[in-house]
């Protein structure tokens, strides 16, 4: 301390204080001055140059003398238009000139096809194949992967690896045998949204009768009413209350006999008292084959399709990471069960393309699941019925652990753990509407000092959940 005090004679700090804040001066050569942004004339368009240098309103120009009063100026007349964005009129980093590129309409023409002609009169691409071959860039490879897999390259003459599938004149070569085999094969990517299904969803014409009946049966207020009826011992009319999963009652037959003297024959008039819930499941389209009674009798847990979870490596759903290419790589490294990214149930029901892209499945995924997130029993049950019927999926995963504020505040994700009545209705309804297993992803609890996962796990099992994944932490 003595040496330090000798070196810093002019220093005004008191070293005796233990809580003295350290102050260090910066050398002048390391000080960066404030940068003044200057507008470059080279990056301005002609209109922007007039706005900046000439001005939109020139006030120095003398107006001609006249007896008329001056024109009234409005408030916004003197306001100059500001230039928006940065790097004004900057050209794109790379743009292939169209005059040196072959028109895509004629690029994939084969020798067996008639000559293709571009119908666009304003097309700026090159249409002379021979001229393009003279300026065509050198190939960057010798093997075209698309041609080896499908038998035909859609890039044709413009392919940068088209040595094997191009003639000397620049026409595209097609391997007929391989191309026909590729046509017969099912697409490698499944679960695409068709236009017909998208229109039905957007116009609200899709039939959700099964999901609506299940939601109605699992309504908490309806369960209370059923308990009251059971305690009082009164009978419940089948037409008023129709619970999915209850024992199916055959329609009652009313038989009346009438005697006719002319032919001495008996006529039997039978009338069936069919409940409104059963009638809602009948379809107007004629069906061929066995009659399906799954809408009347709930499937038992042993009758559902099963997934063997034991001793398997499960790739958890990773938002913004676990897309289809990533899952294909993980399958090569040994993942047994995969699951798509978290999909929002309301957007699935609206037919949003960006949300349906999350449920796509590759042919290499042996066991594949879709994770749903929502805050409403009706929306989640309808979405589960839709996916179970329309796409190829092995199980549905219900997200009860998403900590995103936007979802949590709306009561979805981990926010549903605090809404036990809604949680029970959601899990029961989704499990009953599916003929595939239902899994749940949850957390230990919403708050760090109040874990609730150990209390919910037995209830999840009773409500029909096949597998539970616990993230061993609270909601951050």
From TrEMBL:
Organism: Dinoponera quadriceps (South American ant)
Molecular function, one GO term: flavin adenine dinucleotide binding
Reactions this protein catalyses: 5,6-dihydrouridine(47) in tRNA + NADP(+) = uridine(47) in tRNA + NADPH + H(+); a 5,6-dihydrouridine in mRNA + NADP(+) = a uridine in mRNA + NADPH + H(+); a 5,6-dihydrouridine in mRNA + NAD(+) = a uridine in mRNA + NADH + H(+); 5,6-dihydrouridine(47) in tRNA + NAD(+) = uridine(47) in tRNA + NADH + H(+)
Keywords for this protein: Flavoprotein, FMN, NADP, Oxidoreductase, tRNA processing
Family stated for the protein in its record: Belongs to the Dus family. Dus3 subfamily.
Name the record gives this protein: tRNA-dihydrouridine(47) synthase [NAD(P)(+)]
Record carries keyword Manganese: no
SUPFAM superfamilies: FMN-linked oxidoreductases
PANTHER family: TRNA-DIHYDROURIDINE(47) SYNTHASE [NAD(P)(+)]-LIKE (PTHR45846)
Required co-factors: FMN
Pfam (any one): Dus
Residues annotated as domain DUS-like FMN-binding: 315-473
Encoding gene per record: LOC106749383
